[in-house]
Amino acid sequence: MLNEREIESCYLGQFIPVHYHHNMLMDQNRMHSFKSAIFHAVKPGMKVLELGGGTGVLSFFAAQAADKVYCVEFNPDMVREARKFLAMNQNGHKVEVVHADAFEYLPPEPVDVVICEMIHVGMLREKQVEMMESFKRRYLARFGGPLPVFLPEAVIMAAQPLQQEYDFEGFHAPIVQFQPTNVIYPGTLELAQPGVYSIMDFSQPTDMNVAWEGRFLIEKAGRLNALRFITKNVLSIVEEVGATIDWLNHYMMLPLARPLDVRAGDVVQVSFAYRCGGSIPSLEASIRAEVVARFEEQVAQEGVCEQAAAFA
User: Source organism's superkingdom (predicted)?
Assistant: First the structure.
């Protein structure tokens, strides 16, 4: 019998189907970014822990330099996959695939680097952030400080107003959509520049609750009927050259319950709130958007100010 948390984990995507993990191996952007970051972060002789190992590919990257890698995976199907694939690859013997719940597991010794891949946009659905916070508390209680380096080191999240096409061969359906970041979609019109709503530094305590209210200056006229959510994982900070190794999740477009007609120069106020690991509908239901200043009103106000200044 599954307990309550295991049922929730299955529902929220912790047990990702095997074929999804196989598709991730074919994502060249993901693979190259993680390989570069791991090769930068993991030095010879280090001990590494991966929480949620999947196929074991990230543990494999780490094993090329590390002395020992603990690869923790809860899904028994993926445990078998990881062990099979690692046995086929160079230095796979350095990786110990552990069938355990990452919410409860601690390595038998201190580690230098912890890999915990952030898969979902906005830190939604999956439990990586909560898992890392749980790990930090338990690790400090057993081993004391300092904490290992986390990979990703941080995440930057932004939102962007859109006019999104929801016509499918004449069938109107405002649905949640995901888009690769390197493709231009003619049905997507960006109405304003993205606005950053959260930066999480995983070396510090992370608040599970995200709440934001901000304003966008509309640059193009259109019908604001969706928000694009953008998530950039800062996998590793390369201090010696002042650069970062990043990986962008797919864009996520959420439809607005009440679309707005906007013009260039309008100011739109947007707010939303959700909990890391929560459902997409919980975020979708919290979104509020309204026009707080029309372009004509701003021009008129500026004109009044100019006339007043002329008589000062």
Answer: Bacteria
Report the distance separating Cα 260 and Cα 161, nearest Å.
10
pLDDT at 92 > cutoff 80: yes
Q: What was the pLDDT predicted at 25?
A: 81
CA proximity to 232, closest of 172, 132, 154: 154
> 265: Cβ–Cβ under 8 A, 6 or more apart, which residues?
217, 218, 294, 295, 298, 299
Q: How far apart are CA 231 and CA 143, in angstroms?
A: 32
- What pLDDT was estimated at residue 296? 64
Give CA–CA dist 76/40, Å, rounded.
30
Rounded CA separation 103/297 (Å): 54
pLDDT of 121 higher than 70: yes
Residue 139 confidence (pLDDT) above 90? yes
Mean confidence (pLDDT) of the chain: 90
Residue 15: pLDDT band with limits 50, 70, 90? low
CA distance 247 to 235: 7
- Dihedral sign of CA atoms 79, 85, 88, 93 in order: negative
**Alpha carbon distance 291, 267 (integer Å):** 6
